[in-house]
Amino acid sequence: MNKSGRTPLFRAKNLEKILGIGEIYLKLEGANPFGHKFDRIGELLIKDAKTSKKNTVFIDGPRRYIDSIYAFARLDDIKVKIPVFKNQSWKTKTYPAEDLVHLKGTSPEDQQTATIDLCEKEGYYNGANGYYNTHLAITALEEIGEEICQKMGEISTVFVQLSYGYTVSSLYQSFFKSWAKGNMEKYPRILSCTIPKGNKILEDYTLENEITDIEEYDLKLNKYTKDLYIENTQLLEETLKAIVDTEGEILTVNETLLKEASALLRSAEQII
User: Fold this and answer.
1) Span of 27-31, 43-47, 190-194 with lowest mean pLDDT
2) DSSP letter (8 states) at residue 58
3) Is the per-residue pLDDT at 226 higher than 90?
4) Could you read off the pLDDT of 54-67 as tens digits, one per residue?
5) According to the model, what pLDDT value does residue 237 have?
6) In a 10 Å sphere around its CB, with 0-12 CB exposed, 13-18 middle and 19+ buried, how is residue 215 labelled?
7) DSSP H helices in the chain
């Protein structure tokens, strides 16, 4: 049995009263073994690495993504290698030196090629986020939508954070399957929240869809936004299709609103 998944679906009754909305449910992905939805991906990637008879996994991406795969790799005695590109000193402060591969001379546009070449040369399993094994990531995250459908049935709207597009595409796939099987009359709108600038999916979305007040947002690179700056993603078309087909939208959220929402959730429902 998988260690990740089967996370709680919590009804936020206090938040419903405050916002005047009928029913609000929170999918608590922090209840995964190592505290993130990425645990679902990490567990599946390590399982695939073992099936492929690879004893070393090369991982890159947001810190929580790396941490999830790292944790599952340790459980199965799989070695880990993490690249250190330019301006990534946080990795040298976070992970053991023997697990790091220094590639600081690699330009941003060449990182994907360098990753693929190194994995082929050294025989590493390529688990770098956004580059490879996209189908495994989508398969793992589809279970989130399946778990929601099993417990709720009809759903009107889903809000999700948008970065590479994995979660959006995965939810769309699981909702579409549920609709096709006759388990719901109409799949829900997917409203994707992200930073107002610096995300490739958002940039393509705004070519045909207007987002008001976007120039007024004060955007800074910090712990809240650093993982949402996406220059390249293999899921661009799939994510945009998911949003359009569900009559959804991409919403931009600035840091001030994010902090206010976080504080409200903490005070109203005692959830971090």
Assistant:
1) 190-194
2) E
3) no
4) 999 999 988 999 99
5) 84
6) exposed
7) 13-19, 38-51, 63-75, 89-94, 111-122, 134-152, 166-180, 200-205, 236-245, 255-269
Spatial neighbors of 234 by CB under 8 A, at least 6 apart, are 130, 131, 134
Instruction: Give the three-state DSSP class for 193.
Output: strand
Nearest CA-CA partner of 2 in 46, 59, 56, 40: 40
CA distance 3 to 49: 17
Each residue's pLDDT tens digit, 3-13: 999 999 999 99
CA within 13 Å, CB half, 269: 20
In 3-state terms, what secondary structure has residue 104? coil
d(CA 61, CA 65): 6
Residue 106 has pLDDT above 90, yes or no: yes
pLDDT surpasses 90 at 222: no
Q: How far is CA 180 from CA 138, 140, 173, 174, 186, in A?
A: 19, 20, 10, 10, 9
> How would you classify the pairing of strands 189-194 and 100-102?
unpaired
Instruction: Read off the pLDDT of each residue in 226-244 and give the average, rounded to a whole number.
Output: 78
CA distance 197 to 191: 17
CB-based contact 41:141 (threshold 8 Å): yes
Phi first, then psi, for residue 12 (nearest 5°) are -95, 75
